[in-house]
Design goal:
single chain; alpha+beta; six-stranded antiparallel β-sheet; four-stranded antiparallel β-sheet
Length: 238
């Protein structure tokens, strides 16, 4: 499978065409960064990106057509406000900030990323944020947990600021690595919870060694790579 076929398959289930084009451009950029900074061949880079069929299923769930039409309607509303206000700077202050507060108020109505019950768990200090590729990624909550004698898993609630761009971050492609003070981290997973206007919710989980004092989560590739560091020894304030 070549790059064009992979991109066609990965975006096939996004029915709103502007979304499809935007996501395709983002995937192309991820592929270019991956090949440039790792030296992988086209086929190896496509395999590293993942199964395009599974990505298509996830993108189809995230990019609902009605959300696109809602966004178009909001664009028209913003344009009307711009004419009314006459100045772009006034528009940024008068529209973006109220909408941001609206999103913050609605956040309380959405359930957080669910954590499954575990035999042992401890909430650790979080709150750090990084910016990469136009997104702001903040660790809102971090929990160490394990079942019986299984490995310790660090589960992190993320709030991702989208700024003026509407496309949710494809976390599986943006999350580029994980490590700890005690060595390499084990299996890792990522999941979405919800998205609204200028932000989205997500959760990531990674297995960490039992004696690790901190874990670092990398987002982005090459010059865009940024690191979230989670202190595993400092309990969160309650």
């Amino acid at each position: 499978m070549n790059e064009k076929s992979w991109l066609d398959t990965a975006t096939a289930k996004i029915r709103f065409r502007p979304d499809r084009r935007a996501v395709r451009r983002e995937l192309e950029a991820h592929l270019e960064d991956l090949r440039e900074h790792t030296g992988l061949t086209e086929q190896a880079a496509l395999e590293a990106m993942g199964d395009p069929g599974r990505i298509a299923e996830e993108l189809g769930r995230i990019h609902r057509p009605w959300l696109g039409y809602l966004w178009r309607a909001s664009q028209i509303a913003l344009a009307g406000t711009a004419v009314f206000c006459c100045l772009l700077a006034i528009l940024a202050e008068a529209v973006y900030q109220p909408l941001g507060r609206l999103a913050g108020g609605l956040e309380s109505l959405l359930a957080p990323v669910p954590f499954t019950e575990a035999a042992e768990e401890q909430e650790v200090s979080s709150g750090m944020a990084v910016e990469t590729g136009g997104y702001t990624i903040r660790a809102e909550r971090a929990v160490l947990r394990r079942d019986e004698d299984g490995p310790w898993t660090l589960a992190v609630d993320l709030r991702i600021g989208l700024g003026w761009r509407r496309e949710p971050l494809i976390l599986q492609n943006a999350w580029s690595g994980a490590r700890s003070s005690a060595g390499a981290c084990g299996q890792r997973t990522a999941a979405y919870s919800a998205s609204w206007l200028f932000w989205q919710k997500a959760c990531i989980a990674v297995e960490v060694p039992e004696d690790a004092e901190w874990a670092e989560l990398d987002f982005g590739w090459g010059e865009r790579r940024r690191t979230l560091r989670i202190d595993l020894t400092e309990e969160a304030e309650t």
